């Protein structure tokens, strides 16, 4: 299985609902988004996928989230904006740009800080 990935970062604010101590207050992160795709076959040019296209898909979602309150973003406003939910939201947006390209899986990791991330991974059917 081959794998390629790209990453980008964005600044955003959010607050968590529930028993999260001080994180229930509005606060911000410098998020890092990693998108990793896998597939069993290379294209005739020797690549799994055009990395520029992957980067464009990632940059589109990053541009939409940069300097936003995540609780006001359509698709996130009705959920607790945990890193897990943000990863799934980003996965859905990026996957839409990649389907039909012969890729097997997409994994999206959302890093809230250099030591902690949440991820969502699923098949690109």
Shape: elongated
Report on the biggest sheet. Answer: 5 strands, mixed
Total count of helical runs of at least 4 residues? 2
Order of helices and strands, N to C?
EEHEHEE
Helix and strand content put the structural class at alpha+beta
Short description:
The chain has helices spanning 51-65, 83-98; strands at 2-14, 27-39, 68-69, 105-113, 116-123.
Structure description:
By secondary structure, this protein is α+β, with helices and mostly antiparallel strands. 25% of the residues lie in helices and 36% in strands. Strands 3-1-2-4-5 form a 5-stranded mixed sheet. The chain is elongated, with a radius of gyration of 15 Å. The chain starts with a strand and ends with a strand. The model has no long low-confidence stretch (mean pLDDT 96).
Please specify the SSE layout and strand pairing.
Elements: E1 2-14, E2 27-39, H1 51-65, E3 68-69, H2 83-98, E4 105-113, E5 116-123
Helix pairs in contact: 1-2
Keywords:
125 residues; alpha+beta; elongated
């Amino acid at each position: 299985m081959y794998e390629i990935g790209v990453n980008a970062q964005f600044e955003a604010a959010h607050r968590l609902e529930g028993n999260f101590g001080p994180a229930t207050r509005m606060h911000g992160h410098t998020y890092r988004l990693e998108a990793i795709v896998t597939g069993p076959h290379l294209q005739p040019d020797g690549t799994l996928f055009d990395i520029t296209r992957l980067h464009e898909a990632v940059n589109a979602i990053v541009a939409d989230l940069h300097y936003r309150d995540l609780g006001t973003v359509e698709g996130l406003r009705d959920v607790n904006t945990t890193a897990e939910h943000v990863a799934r939201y980003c996965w859905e947006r990026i996957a839409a740009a990649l389907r039909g390209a012969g890729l097997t899986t997409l994994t999206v990791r959302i890093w809230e800080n250099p030591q902690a991330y949440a991820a969502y991974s699923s098949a690109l059917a």
